[in-house]
Specification:
The chain contains eight helices and 14 strands. By secondary structure, it is of the alpha/beta class. The structure holds zinc ion.
Length: 334
C-alpha cells in the first residue's frame, strides 16, 4: 500500500529560533538568529491504490490576522505574519481537485496553534490526537501557555467522538502503510506520521527534528547550528535537541531514536518540517540528505519567497503526473 503526499504552505512569519518562553532548559537563549520563511505545515496524503483514502497531516495555521493576535502583536516589534493557514489548505485542495469533504482523517500532531486552526473546515473528517496532548493543551506549563490558545484547543475538543475526534494512546495505524508514532518531546503528547510510498517510508510533518541539523549535528553542511546552543549538542553521536520545546528534551531525543528505528530501509527518509526546500511532492521528490548545493544555499541565505497560498511551488510540475495516474486508475477499473 502506497501513498503520495503534497506539501502545503503555512503563513510567512519570523520567530526567534529559540522562543524564550518555550525554553525549558537552563541554556543561554539564542535570539540572534531568526527564521523568516514560509514553511510547509500540512501534507495532503492520498492512497495510490485507493484514492478515496485521503488525509491531512497537520491541521493548519491560523490566518495572519489571528496569528498576529496570538503570537506577533504589533507592540512586540516582531514582524507581522502574512498569509493564511486555512485559505492555503483550501487552495492546495483546489489545486489537487480534492473537495474538502473527501478528507477522511486529519492528524493533529500536537495542539499548538500551528497544527489545528483549519480543522473546522472539515466537519466530517476524523481528527486524531493523543490523549496526553489533550492534557498538555488544557493544562500547559506556564512557559508554554502561548502555544495553546483556548480558541485552538476548542477547535479540536468541540468535535464529537468518535466520528470527528479519535483520542488515541501511543502508536496507531491509520490505514495500512500510514502509521502514527507517539513521539513526545516537543510537547508531552506529540505524535508524528510515517507514510509508505513506492520509494520508501517518509516521516512527515513532525515537530521532532525540524531541521536537518537536528538529525545530523555532526555534519558540517547543515545550517543552522553554531547559533543554536542546545542541550547535548556537544555530545558526539547525539542529536541536536532544540530549546523550542514544551516537554522533556530527553523524551525528544528518545523520540528521534524511535523515528529512526521505524525508518529502517536505506531509502526511507525524514522530511524535516521547517526545511523550506526539503521534498514537497513525495515520492516524486525524494532525498535523505540534501545536495551540497542545497546546504550552500541555506547557509548563504535562508530562502524567502513571495508569500503565496496553496501547494509549495515545487509540487506544481508533478500535478499532471498525479492526474494521469488517477485517470489511469479510473480507466483500469472501468
Ligand atoms: Zn509546536
Amino acid at each position: 500500500v502506497n501513498y503520495e503526499a503534497w506539501g502545503c504552505l503555512a503563513p510567512l512569519y519570523a520567530e526567534p529560533i529559540a522562543i524564550q518562553e518555550m525554553a525549558m532548559m537552563p541554556v543561554p537563549p539564542s535570539t540572534r538568529l531568526k527564521i523568516v520563511g514560509q514553511a510547509t505545515d500540512v501534507f495532503v496524503v492520498e492512497s495510490v491504490e485507493d484514492p478515496s483514502k485521503k488525509a491531512l497531516i497537520g491541521g493548519g495555521h491560523p490566518s495572519a490576522e489571528a496569528l498576529n493576535k496570538l503570537a506577533f502583536p504589533k507592540e512586540s516589534g516582531l514582524m507581522q505574519a502574512q498569509g493564511d493557514g486555512p485559505a492555503s489548505i483550501m487552495t492546495a485542495l483546489d489545486q489537487l481537485e480534492i473537495r474538502p469533504e473527501e478528507i477522511q482523517v486529519i492528524v493533529v500532531q500536537h495542539m499548538h496553534w500551528d497544527f489545528e486552526y483549519a480543522v473546522d473546515l472539515f466537519p466530517q473528517a476524523q481528527v486524531i490526537i493523543q490523549r496526553r496532548e489533550i492534557l498538555s493543551a488544557v493544562d500547559p506549563a506556564p512557559n508554554c501557555r502561548f502555544g495553546y490558545p483556548r480558541e485552538g484547543t476548542r477547535k479540536v475538543l468541540n468535535r464529537s467522538q468518535p466520528d470527528q475526534l479519535l483520542v488515541i494512546e501511543g502508536d496507531y495505524t491509520v490505514w495500512p502503510g500510514f502509521d502514527l508514532l507517539f513521539t513526545p518531546g516537543h510537547t508531552d503528547g506529540h505524535q508524528c506520521a510515517i507514510v509508505q510510498t513506492v520509494k520508501g517510508k517518509a516521516c512527515l510533518g513532525s515537530e521532532v527534528g525540524v531541521f536537518y541539523s537536528q538529525w545530523y549535528p555532526e555534519d558540517p553542511r547543515y545550517f543552522p547550528k553554531p547559533d543554536w546552543p542546545a542541550p547535548y549538542s556537544f555530545l558526539r553521536g547525539s542529536f541536536l535537541i532544540p530549546q523550542h520545546g514544551c516537554a522533556d528534551p530527553r523524551d525528544h531525543e528518545q523520540s528521534q531514536r524511535k523515528i529512526l528505528a521505524h525508518l529502517s530501509s536505506e531509502t526511507d527518509i525524514i522530511r524535516p518540517l521547517f526545511e523550506p526546500l526539503a521534498p514537497q511532492a513525495l515520492p516524486y521528490q525524494w532525498w535523505q540528505h540534501p545536495s551540497d548545493d542545497y546546504a550552500a544555499k541555506m547557509r548563504a541565505e535562508w530562502p524567502v519567497r513571495p508569500v503565496r497560498l496553496g501547494l509549495a511551488p515545487e509540487c506544481l510540475e508533478f500535478l499532471p503526473v498525479r492526474k494521469a495516474r488517477l485517470q489511469g486508475a479510473l480507466s483500469g477499473t472501468a
